[in-house]
Amino acid sequence: MKKKWSKYYNTEYKDNCERLLYFDMMAISAFIIKLFQKKKSKALQSFFDKVEIILNDADSEVKNLILAGLIEGIQQICPYKKIDMRYEFDTWLSPLTKKHWDKLTGFYKFD
Question: pLDDT value at position 108?
């Protein structure tokens, strides 16, 4: 992920333009989807363990960035990749992350 992030960052910010944090979170969301598709369980577990730690200790601005940028970003990509967001990530979600995940999932309509 570090290698992909460096490539993304160097491409997006080569002209020292203003940081767009929610776009950055969407890029990370896309990386997570790729890990999921490659069945990289260890990497996903490690990532979501860190998300849980951040959510537990973060101020409201950082929580919003994680929820609206990262979690929602992953969920927005799922339908396009034929991933059932309701269940497919449960293995890696810790309690607080799962609570927010489910809350956001409630805004989607499923067949």
Answer: 74
Taking only the tens place, the pLDDT of each residue in 41-77 is 999 999 999 999 999 999 999 999 999 999 999 999 9
Say which DSSP state 93 is in: -
**Given 3-state DSSP classes, what are the helix, strand and coil percentages for the chain, each rounded to the nearest 5?**
75, 0, 25
Burial 43-54 (b: 16+ CB within 10 A, else e): bbeebbeebbeb
Contact 83, 35 (CB under 8 A): no
Separation of alpha carbons 63 and 70, rounded Å? 10
